[in-house]
Model the fold of this input.
Amino acid sequence: MTNTYFITGIGTEVGKTVVSAIVTEALEADYFKPIQAGDLDYSDTHKVKALISNSTSKFFSNAYALKTPMSPHAAAKIDEIEIQIEKIKRPETQNNLVIEGAGGLLVPLNSKDCIIDLMDKTDKIILVSRHYLGSINHTLLSVEALKSRGFSNIGIIFSGNEHRTTESIILEKTELSCIGRISEEKSFSKDVILKYAQELKLNFEKL
Done:
């Protein structure tokens, strides 16, 4: 049985791409980033591909590749297009699929739809939470948004240096499980990604 793992975060620059690489490597899954805004010459798809050691994973093209590093709705406006959610088709694959979102759950795609609208109820959702002042609130709000939409298969990965009081209150209030921790590394190489993939593989499979 194959599964889809949707990687989202409590905001931008919290470690979604690194987590996406780790999950992709751990499960030798395929990878899809529906919307890329900016950095087209070295996109998140390029970054994940460069961090993967296995030869099984396939990397699918973005549904929308926007030129400006802004919220997708704004970047699309600059490109003089409108993102149409019905045109974002998940790639057909017989493999596990990792989908990486953009920014947080309520990042707008257009006047109606947000990143959360790209999720399916059958998805296994991995929420990346990085520690900073306000991250508890952002994490709890993200979980509340997911649960209010009927999503239940949710796991949390903490990114950055350990902060026990922050993590314990988040897990207590959300009643979710921590499925992993990504420490503050000097750099993320293929070897580092592989190490985390081997450590966390069973956690992802149990999600």
Q: What stands out?
A: The first helix runs from residue 16 to 27. The chain has one domain: 4-206.
